Amino acid sequence: MPEDEGRIIICRRKGCETLWYHLSCVGLDRGINDWVCDPCKSVERSRGRGGKRRHPV
User: Where on the tree of life does the source sit, at the highest rank (predicted)?
Assistant: First the structure.
């Protein structure tokens, strides 16, 4: 296994189903603080800013 395949990043979103990602698999060469994976970004966008579900008024 090449050295960079063992480097990982963790999705900061609580409840992420995958949680750990190889940097090379998500197209990164170094870690990022407060990184969120693409599936969790989709969930956050659908719920609005902050990841909270909006309630109808």
Answer: Eukaryota
> CA Rg, the chain, in Å?
14
Number of neighbouring beta carbons within 10 Å of residue 49? 8
- pTM attached to this predicted model: 0.66
4-24 per-position pLDDT tens digit: 567 999 999 999 999 999 999
Does residue 55 fall inside a structural domain?
no
Question: Is residue 28 domain-resident?
Answer: yes
- What is the number of residues in the chain? 57
45, 37 Cβ separation under 8 angstroms = no
**CA–CA separation, 2 vs 6, rounded Å?**
7
